Amino acid sequence: MKNKLVILGAAESGVGAAILGSRQGYEVFVSDAGNIKDQYRNELLANNIAFEEGVHSEQKILNADEIVKSPGIPEKNELVKKIRAKQIPIISEIELAYRYAGKSKIIGITGSNGKTTTTSLIYHICKTANRDCAMVGNIGYSFAKQVALDPKPLYIVEISSFQLDDIKNFRPDVAVLTNITEDHLDRYQYKLENYVHSKFRIAENQLATDVFIYCLDDETTMKFITHYPFKSLSAPITMNKELPQGVYLTNAEMHLKWKKEEMQMNVNDFALKGKHNQYNSMAASMAATAVDIRKEKIREALQTFESLEHRMEPAGTVRGVEFINDSKATNVNSTWFALESMTKPVILILGGVDKGNDYSLLKDLVTEKVKAIVCMGIDNRKIHEAFGDTVSLMLNTESAKDAVEAAFHFSNKGDVVLLSPACASFDLFKNYEDRGHQFKTAVKNL
């Protein structure tokens, strides 16, 4: 008898899990309550995988031996409650991928901010060192699909807290926890400790030979770290003191010390600018060292890395006004980092779907650097309440085009228009990429 594997959700991770499951001999059935995109429907058809869309056939789903759940489906979903009541095991796609990843090494990266940049930077270092590797996970390419179709000896996996919620045995050889700030609390009963617990799961299965990289300067990480005793080798990063092992920064010099390896590099040579990117570069250097990449290659890669789309991405200059696309800033802390790195007067485009944001964190930086705020969302009340007495110029808009035109109107030569919304994008856009693309198009059309 074949094991029955049901997959809920037919986007990138779900279809990847389906392909891997069918190749490993499971009887696979994919169920999506919405419409499946053509690209994914075609992949399911090409692989002869049974699926349904627009409906969940409960009888069939509740007859599964195991279920892979899309990270987007919350625990409070009625179907998930029924699955839990029947005690059918639910795993995430990264757990399934790990099961069949063989002896490949895995670098896993999680955190509230910086994980995409850190993941991309580690991948860039590994490629610079000619390592045969793949960048997968939350970054947009299914880990399971990679394992099924093009296995590699090294995987660099970006992992969200939702993906970590349903792991069982998943174990990265190198785990990176960039930082923990309040995000997605709507999925964790509005309790920070529930979200923290998810993040620390990245290290829970690690062995004494594995490596755990974390930030000594991150308040939440350090407050909770003693609650999660990990067995792996500790590789901390900090800007506040010297370390016998790990990475530290003093007088603009990065020092990396690991076993018999030592490396130094001036932060002015990093391609990525801003304090938050110094942390990302430190974490990436440590991760690369942990998989035996030589310091010459790490140094070269840190100097040649190009910034990511939608992450502090220059979007053009019009009549002396600079436009920056930071659409990937979907929480307040990301926007804080963006503002912190600004050296010119800012017109800030904020707003979208609020995940329980505390805008008071931005108050000082907004007072110091922001001359106007353009809101871009359906409901902007909280933004007006937070900054109404600080910023005299505030305007509501309901499209990227209107927001860009209004921001340009408020600006003078030498200013920066910064799209850094601090919110999810689902009220007016498909996703943060769509938001960023519409912003860039609007800038081009000025």
Walk me through this protein's architecture.
With 446 residues, the chain is of the alpha/beta class. The chain has three domains: 4-91, Rossmann fold; 95-304, UDP-N-acetylmuramoyl-L-alanine:D-glutamate ligase (3-Layer(aba) Sandwich); 313-444, Protein-Tyrosine Phosphatase, Chain A. Helix content is 35%, strand content 23%. The protein has 17 helices and 20 strands. It has a nine-stranded mixed sheet, with helices on one face. Helix 6 packs across helix 11 (275-290), helix 6 (115-128) packs across helix 12 (295-304) and helix 16 crosses helix 17. It is globular and about 70 Å long. The model has no long low-confidence stretch (mean pLDDT 94).
In the CATH hierarchy, the architecture of the largest domain is 3-Layer(aba) Sandwich
Quickly name the level 1 CATH class of the largest domain: Alpha Beta
Number of helices: 17
Unreliable spans: none
How large is the share of residues in beta strands? 15-25%
CATH topology annotation of the largest domain: UDP-N-acetylmuramoyl-L-alanine:D-glutamate ligase
Rg over CA atoms, rounded to whole Å, is: 22 Å
- Helix/strand-derived category reads alpha/beta
Distance between the termini: 63 Å
The shape, in one word, is: globular
CATH superfamily of the largest domain: Mur-like, catalytic domain
| Count of DSSP strands | 20
Q: Which bin fits the share of residues in helices? A: 25-40%
Overall pLDDT confidence:
94
**How many domains make up the 3D coordinates?**
3
